[in-house]
Amino acid sequence: MKRPRLKRPSIKLPAMNRSLLLAVVFAVGAVAWIASGSLGGGGDRQQMRNAPAPLEAETSVPEVRVRGSEAQDHLRELVVFGQTEAVREVELKAEIGGPIAALPAEKGERLAAGAEIARIAEQERPAELAKARALLEQRRIEVQAARKLSEKGYRAQTSLAAAEAELQAAEAAVRLAEVNLEKLVVTAPFDGVLDRRSVELGDFVDRGDPIGRLVDLDPLLVVAQVSEKDVGEIAVGDAGALRLADGERRIEGRVRFVAASAETATRTYRVELAVPNPGGRLPVGATAELHLPIETVRAHRVTPAVLTLDTDGRVGVNTVDEQDTVVFHPVRILAQDDDGVWLAGLPERIRLISVGQEYVVDGQPVRPVEESEVEARQPPGPAAAGTGAADEGSDAEGGQS
Fold it and tell me: Strand ranges (DSSP E) for 94-191?
């Protein structure tokens, strides 16, 4: 006889109790997971938290290369552009009319004062002079006769005065004829170069027609226009120098003229420097630099590579003081030459940062290394050049040894 199968009664939980139970299970699992470090690398994170931070790179003092510099006397110059001019020139003109009979001087020839440049044909002028001299002799005889008659009372004083007047007129006529003959020859009034000749043989010239131009090239003038800001620092007699456009020749001279009034259009003043030009080697009309010394100042000569800018954009150099701290000095550039630039506004003696100045700032501690010490580190031989370049590059990038 079969026993009847009993059915287990099913227990149904309310919906709210079932959700609460699931939440508790998940919470317990999450806590266990975090506690066991199962998120991955938990031990590594703990090790990273416990390990000390590598602060060596942040706390190390950069190394820079320095060299000593001492101020020197520097002559500050005012440099203006101008051109060369002849110290004097004259346009020679005919003083009497007639055809050109001779031209002894050639264009471009150097002439001494009094040298003959051109001769105008005499034509009838010698005859006129002879006639005037003959009349003069006649007037002299007449005056002598009139004087004797007047002394004896046979002739009035008025007649004697008239005869003497005619004698003076005859003398003037002779002198006029002689001067006309002298004017036939055109001569050089001073030593110079016949820069231009305007006539040829046979040309007919009248009074006032051009014959040629004579220029005096020694001394030579260098003429420039100076601004009203600088003209007050220049005086007649000051030393100066001329440098031609080729940049090779520098010729010393003296200021011979400073204009008292400015050019209306440009508000600048004409300044003339006279320089010796024996033989007329220097040309007229050439572009030139006029160097005018202004004052002597104390300045440092450095290579342009050491110049840098501060945070305000000022041009200057970085130096190292006695406490091995960077000090930025703004500078004023006075001049530049083949050996470097001249800087004003610096102390008398400085330790100039020559390598690494771009990577340090004002007030930063550094470890200065003298250039002589760096050179002593370089091995002898051809490899030294490559080693030095690498060393310099390392300094330039980080300032580290």
Answer: 98-102, 110-111, 116-120, 185-187
